[in-house]
UniProtKB/TrEMBL annotation:
This is DUF2200 domain-containing protein. The lineage of its organism: Bacteria, Pseudomonadati, Bacteroidota, Flavobacteriia, Flavobacteriales. InterPro entries: SP1917_dom_sf, UCP033199.
Amino acid sequence: MTTTSKHDERIANLTFASVYPHYITKVEKKGRTKAELHQIIEWLTGYDEKQLQKLIEEKVTFKDFFQKATLNPNAELIKGVICGYRIEEINTPLTKQVRYLDKLVDELAKGRKMDKILRTP
């Protein structure tokens, strides 16, 4: 299943700051912590807590968020369906990266063990 250019553009222009509170709510509602959320974001993007806070304050778009990120080389091990899309079939790199993050947040909220979420052997 491929994404449309309109869908990709909408995701690119969405601000990380607008979605971040929803990530927190989702994981905390399921008994996980903001610290765990930050751990998976740092694993995927390389952003530490201070950098993440700065990006939130600057209200960067997902496009800028991922352009500045250093994506974890194991990110391509993230597979499955999220938001109706099979991650490994998404052709647009930015949309795929956003869905990687969505999938990690989803796995955290579902109670998956951290070593599994972070794809450690």
